What does this fold into?
Amino acid sequence: MSVFVRLTSIILLYSVFACEAAETAGGRWEGSIQIPGSEFPLIVDLDQVAGQTWAGSVIIPGLGVKGAPLTDLSVGDSEISFTIKAALANERTGPAKFKGRVTSPGQLTGDFLQAGNTATCVLQKTGPPQVELPRKSTAIRHEFEGAWKGDYEMDGYPRHVTLTLANHNPGSASAKLVIVGKQTNNVSVELVTEEDGLLTIKSPEFGINYEGRFRKEVSEINGTFTLGPFELPLVLRRASANAR
It folds into this structure.
């Protein structure tokens, strides 16, 4: 058999496996995370974009998670794994993970892992995927640009926040977020948007969201800091007025 014929056979075989994986994994999966004494509904959407790259999102109503993107998404012939960094991660426990396998047509069984704990999940395919794709950053108002500082408290320990915002061309902004507590965390920010005066900052890797509005009369951003399921008020002031 020639090298060309072998190569063609391998490509065709890979295509067959890829199609089988897409047919098996793609769709909306619904079920629950089974924790002793309780259950949390779980909805996972998986789709193969343009027949190539896999994308997914998750909904966990009992934990306030809606449309959180899946990262480290791996789809094999029957095995599926992913990480949920956007909603359930925190600096102590790390991100939540899922490892599962299609055990029968339309059924996905696996384990939900976080902080050394494991919970069984059984999901049924209920229909086509409804993946919520990540949003893109937008430009922000001039008032938001610059360095801001603020504080919040969690688990009895103060945290000091520095947020630096800047506009870039074409029409998008970026943010640098540093949180200092027991240690210094340089938080990666993937989304910065501003709509009708509402600033939104998102870090899927750290499970952090911040939403705030600029108050011109006092030159501060008044908002809510969300870390996983926890919501805390966070007021940010110009760095020069809040220097340490």
